[in-house]
Design goal:
alpha+beta; 2 helices; 5 strands; five-stranded antiparallel β-sheet; STM4215-like
């Protein structure tokens, strides 16, 4: 994902910059997207595998409070899950009206 006008690419750039602020290199792969809606909002759940270079403990701890966004998108929730061999990042992304 290298196109900067792509909302996913913009979210990933935002995540990469956040990691860099903590001295961590982060790469993302294995993307999946699931539609999501509530009575008042529409969006999707974006899930990706995160690979880090360096000690990511402080970044992982701070990540749920980071303000991540892209044009027309707002990250409403973020969770990290450890699988057997990888960290999975789950984002609830709302579409702005």
């Amino acid at each position: 994902m290298t196109r900067t006008h792509d909302p996913h690419a913009r979210l990933l750039k935002s995540l990469e910059h956040s990691a860099q602020n903590y001295g961590v290199g982060a790469t993302f792969s294995d993307f999946s997207e699931t539609p999501w809606s509530s009575a008042t909002f529409n969006g999707y759940r974006l899930t990706t595998t995160v690979k880090v270079d360096g000690n990511a403990t402080a970044w992982f701890a701070a990540l749920p409070e980071e303000e991540l966004s892209a044009p027309g998108r707002l990250v409403a929730d973020l969770a990290l899950r450890r699988d057997a061999d990888a960290m999975r990042l789950e984002l609830l992304v709302l579409l702005e009206a």
